[in-house]
Amino acid sequence: MNKAEMFMIINQICMDKGIDKQTIFSALEAALISATKKAYQLKTADGIEAKIDEENKDIIVTINGERIPAPELGRIAAQTARQVIIQKIREAEKDVIFREFQEQVGKIVSGNVYKVDRRQIIVDIGRTEGILPRREQSFRDNYRQGDRIKAILLEVKREAKGPVLLLSRKHPDLVRRLFELEVPEIKDGIVVIKSIIREAGEHTKIAVASVNDKIDPMGACVGMRGSRIKNIVNELQGERIDVVRWSEDPIEFIKEALKPAKVEEIKILDEEKRHAEVLVDESQLSLAIGRRGQNVRLASKLTGWELDIRTAEGSHITSLEAGKSLEKILLEVEDVNEEVVENLKESGFHDLNSLAMAGIDDLIEVEGIDKKIAEDIIAKAKEYLEKGDEEE
Q1: What is d(CA 60, CA 338) in angstroms, rounded to the nearest whole number?
Q2: 133, 153, 170: which is the final residue of a domain?
Q3: Residue 234 in contact with residue 182, Cβ under 8 Å?
Q4: 59, 92, 140, 213: which one has the fewest Cβ atoms less than 10 Å from its Cβ?
Q5: Residue 363: CB partners within 8 Å, gap ≥ 6?
């Protein structure tokens, strides 16, 4: 490869790969200095200078001001240029992939399961791979090699071998994006998703509204005979989804959010602190609370109101008490105290799903937990999740 050919190749590669020409020239100059030092067996690169003269299609390398003879330079330059170009092509391709997926953060990506182990699922996404950690999986997820998988792209990381995508099937945005795919009215902006609260694998509540009075937002999301929402539920492996009609009126919104329970009356106790009392019939109490307090807990988070559920007979529970169900379950495990519960939460284990999906190695890294306690916690979380499925 002579100089003219080298410049022609560099120009073509820069056009095809979108690489800045000066980037290659700078890298080539640095590489020529290093190659010259090695070729002349010099102890240091002091005194060696290299310059790419694009205008005259020339390469100039000097040692202490003396230019290296053309034959010797030709041999060094050819080998060096080849290595630099290959390296820059690889770097450019990695950078293109990184930028491409960086723009897709928060969106759904699809791929095929390449490998499954106890810590993660590796997903083949064409030009790169995605990592789906156990703690970002729903306890319902059960994928095998070769299966097609959809997940939310959480983050794109630069690594030596190329960009790696961090995926999640636990994030609420997975539900949001699935609704956007299934419901054209949402994609077109006619139906708007106001809020989503999700306990992955178990229960999601999604509040929707319509900007067109002629369009029923709930009907649009559910679809004819439930066809649209069935597709989403199937993708989430059977997770329960409640579509709720959003309202500016907090009383109406709370009534909707607590469905399927029928509410008799709602009193605003403190508008500033967003605290309300909900009166239901005794027969509706269990529906309003939900298993392990899940219905009232999700309704409270969806609406942003603290809710006290009461009956005329005197039964009573608050959404804050319902929110403590995880702590209560964990405290049933031998040798688990409130300090251990707090350590678990600080380490990112905020719900039963994340505990059920955790590996023993993940939990024993948490202060106060050994192998036996880790096994008991995972077993307890799975027991409650399976019990909930049986109840439903």
Answers
A1: 71
A2: 170
A3: no
A4: 213
A5: 344, 349, 355, 369, 373, 374, 377, 378
pLDDT tens-digit readout, 17-33: 777 788 888 888 888 88
On whether both 24 and 64 belong to a single domain, the answer is yes
pLDDT per residue as tens digits for the range 349-370: 777 777 887 788 888 888 888 8
pLDDT at residue 306 is higher than 90:
yes
The domain tally of the chain equals 5
Domain extent at residue 235: 171-246
Q: Is 377 within 8 Å of 369 (Cβ atoms)?
A: yes
Statement: residue 392 has pLDDT above 50: no
Structure tokens at 251: 């009383």
What DSSP character marks residue 68? P
**3-state class (DSSP) for residue 206:** strand
Separation of alpha carbons 344 and 347, rounded Å: 5
Amino acid at 93: E
Cα three-residue angle 341-275-257, rounded to 5 degrees: 80
Residues 352 and 368 in one domain: yes
Closest CA to 245 of 266, 217, 264: 217
Examine the domain organization and report whether 206 and 132 are in the same domain.
Answer: no
Return the CATH number at 43: 3.30.1480.10
CA trace torsion 351, 353, 357, 360 (10° rounding): 30
